[in-house]
Design goal:
heterodimer, A: Flavocytochrome C3, Chain A, domain 2, 4 helices, 0% strand, B: mainly alpha, 2 domains, 11 helices
Amino acid sequence: MRTLAIFVLLGASIGLASPMASTQQLGTGPATLRRGIDIPVDIEPPRMPPVEVTDTSRQRSYPMQPPTIPHEIDNYQVDLKVNTCLSCHSRRQVERSQAPMVSVTHYQDRDGQFLAEVSPRRYFCTQCHVPQTDTEPGVANVFEDMDTIIRRQAERNQ
Amino acid sequence: MWDRFKYYWRLLNSPARHLSLGALTVGGFAMGIVFWGGFNTALEATNTEGFCVSCHEMSANTYQEMKPTVHFTNGSGVRATCPDCHVPHDWTHKIARKMQASKEVWGWLFGTINTPEKFEAHRLTMAQREWARLEANDSLECRNCHNFEYMDFTQQSPRAAEAHRRGLEEQGLTCIDCHKGIAHELPDMAGVEGW
């Protein structure tokens, strides 16, 4: 009985510790980005992971997913004066840049009316589109896309 | 007044009475070195980042904007200073640019851009002036470091390599055509061609 308990505890501790070493709770304080360490205590922040620059589209997990950015966007200026993303991705610029044009939905207002320019509600690109880094996910994720779910359902029905 | 002018004219126009030709030659040569050296030292002193950011117009706006960019901080620690990009390196063009810069002294005297609001109002004009200069000299100040002949496209990301091949080789573009706003904030680009 005692052996079993030890095994259960051991298994639980491995299960908790292994999935993401960088985000585990280190102290006993609230579970914040400081990983539970008290505010007066200095902690060594995790290293900043490099941004993945593949320059090729990634698969989307579901059809409406905003595509992720396959390149660095350091110091890209997106403010009242200018949107540097659109200097390649806008309708006028894609011939020169050969970058994918922002989808037509960005040229519609919320009533579906088409506009000449990118709609103000779609102006701030990084609200939805983000670059990806080469690192462990900060939060565990069990997302499966529809294809996987349908396939499993079909296998179960056989 | 006229007599005085005639007196000095005669003094300068007549041969030296007490000085030998040798003293004049050697003295003139020595003074030439002193004056030329002094001129060049003063010129180079105005061609440093320290001189540029000694005015708050530059240190509070453009200098701060440059700090997070790759031309200020980067992995290798090689960085560009103001004159590296904004003043031609060869002597003739440098002098020409320095003469144009006298207008910037005028602007400083009268406080043309001495508040953030005024600076912002003039940002497009000032940026367009620099773009026009770099377009006219084929981005010479970029190419002083980024030499196209030694640029290995295979070491660039596929997107960058393709863009450089297409832009530089096929369309005959120059660096500044695409790389605007890499070291300072961009102005309101509404109406600027290609934006």
